[in-house]
Amino acid sequence: MGCTAADVAAAVRAAAEVVAEHRDELVELDRAIGDGDHGENLRRGFNAVVSALDTSTPDTPGAVLKLVAKTLISTVGGAAGPLYGTAFLRAATALGDAAELGPAEVTTAIEAALGGVVARGKAAVGDKTMVDALDPAVRAATATSGSVAEVLAAAAAGAQAGAASTVPLVARKGRASYLGERSADHLDPGARSTALLLASFARSAGAGQ
Amino acid sequence: MSLVGLVVVSHSARLAEGVVEVAAQMAPDVAVLAAGGTADGGIGTDLDAVSAALTSADAGAGVVLLYDLGSARMVAEMAVELLADPDRAALVDAPLVEGAVAAAVAAQGGGDLTGVAAAARTALTTTDGPSAAAELQQAPRTEEVPVLGRFRLTNDIGLHARPAALLARTLAGLDASVTVRFGGRAADATSVLALMSLGARGGDEIEVSAVGPRAQEALGRVAELVERDFDD
Ligand SMILES: Nc1ncnc2c1ncn2[C@@H]1O[C@H](COP(=O)(O)OP(=O)(O)OP(=O)(O)O)[C@@H](O)[C@H]1O
Ligand SMILES: [Mg+2]
């Protein structure tokens, strides 16, 4: 059984709850090497996403992700807005009009999301950004065959390890790059939120099986 | 003919407005618009605000966008991508204040989108000494004898932003090449930034030399401006 638009919308709502639960943690991480707004930016953005889903019911998974993208782009207010916005937008475009998603579509969507983040932010692996979480997530997803839940679980595990790998890195993109060497020994907030989002999507997919 | 517009994208509404204030002072006819801060008045960037500014700043000749950091660039980029014709806007990586001033002056002078973007991009290199001097080396036409004049500035701020812009505008389009010298340095009188970088203040004496068919008239116009205290 694949995921329908309703499943995707439910997964996005669950992710919004996770973002709210981790708001303070993400703020703390961003305070250490940024301007301390990442958790609040994402909370505001995903709150708006939930309101948008309350007032409209997109009828394909792609349309749900497009709504998420547009809402994040216009409400987040920090780098995460255009970055996650472009990620969701590219994922939506890659899915086209498909009514249900299987494992192959999910992998394609995550891949497209990474392409979007890289196109927008021009960061490479090792620059201490969300790319460090998303890139291993794509590689793990591509290497996994199985259900949607299994693909997402692999992606989430990849993202988790990738986020952890940002700790020793010196930032070369984003606000943290202004800190130079002092950005080392901290977890990148965007990599952390990417891992949280993918873990939440994986849980939703697992519960829906 | 319509002029190229300018949009300043910043994380802070006050910063964007401040930059606009400084730049607009030198370009009274150019649409210079601020897009700073989030919709709720916080620090951050707002795509809708940038898109709206982009539309209102375009009088037909296109718009140059300048940004401060991080997401400001990304949001500006998205706003450009959303335009029906993305070629009507140019996103320029430049020091915000210098870039905005240089772009505003170039736009006021009737520069096209490419020219205004280039003015912003090279804002820093045109204000520093060596390259201004290099510019000057090619300026004087060799056999011509320059018309010379010395003028004591009697306005308070001297050859600062607005007066410098006024001087450059007054000489624009006149068939004469005019050089202003002060403190051992020289500036092409059509370059506002070069003029400002001379640092001539009220009470200082500047030397002006002009060559070309209308050199005499150029000197006359300078004399008049100094006489009128640059309309201060
Ligand atoms: N150029 C980039 N490419 C990829 N990811 C980036 C880039 N710049 C920042 N990030 C990610 O965004 C996270 C910060 O997001 P946040 O919402 O706090 O934006 P911000 O840096 O405060 O935004 P702003 O640029 O407006 O100051 C970083 O931890 C990093 O993972
Ligand atoms: Mg931040």
UniProtKB/TrEMBL annotation, chain A:
One of its GO terms (biological process) is glycerol catabolic process. InterPro entries: DhaK_L_YcgS (IPR012737), DhaL_dom (IPR004007), DhaL_dom_sf (IPR036117), Dihydroxyacetone_Kinase (IPR050861). It comes from the Bacteria. GO terms for cellular component: cytosol. GO terms for molecular function: glycerone kinase activity. Keywords: Kinase, Transferase. Residues 6-203 form the DhaL domain. PANTHER family: TRIOKINASE/FMN CYCLASE (PTHR28629), TRIOKINASE_FMN CYCLASE (PTHR28629:SF4). This is Dihydroxyacetone kinase subunit L.
TrEMBL record, chain B:
Residues 3-133 form the PTS EIIA type-4 domain. Keywords: Sugar transport, Transferase, Transport. It catalyses: dihydroxyacetone + phosphoenolpyruvate = dihydroxyacetone phosphate + pyruvate. One of its GO terms (cellular component) is membrane. The keyword Cell cycle does not apply. The lineage of its organism: Bacteria, Bacillati, Actinomycetota, Actinomycetes, Pseudonocardiales. This is Phosphocarrier protein HPr. CDD domains: PTS-HPr_like. It comes from Actinophytocola xanthii. NCBIfam families: dha_pts (TIGR02364), PTS_HPr_family (TIGR01003). One of its GO terms (biological process) is glycerol catabolic process. Its EC number is 2.7.1.121. Component of the dihydroxyacetone kinase complex, which is responsible for the phosphoenolpyruvate (PEP)-dependent phosphorylation of dihydroxyacetone. DhaM serves as the phosphoryl donor. Is phosphorylated by phosphoenolpyruvate in an EI- and HPr-dependent reaction, and a phosphorelay system on histidine residues finally leads to phosphoryl transfer to DhaL and dihydroxyacetone. General (non sugar-specific) component of the phosphoenolpyruvate-dependent sugar phosphotransferase system (sugar PTS). This major carbohydrate active-transport system catalyzes the phosphorylation of incoming sugar substrates concomitantly with their translocation across the cell membrane. The phosphoryl group from phosphoenolpyruvate (PEP) is transferred to the phosphoryl carrier protein HPr by enzyme I. Phospho-HPr then transfers it to the PTS EIIA domain. Residues 146-232 form the HPr domain. Homodimer. The dihydroxyacetone kinase complex is composed of a homodimer of DhaM, a homodimer of DhaK and the subunit DhaL.
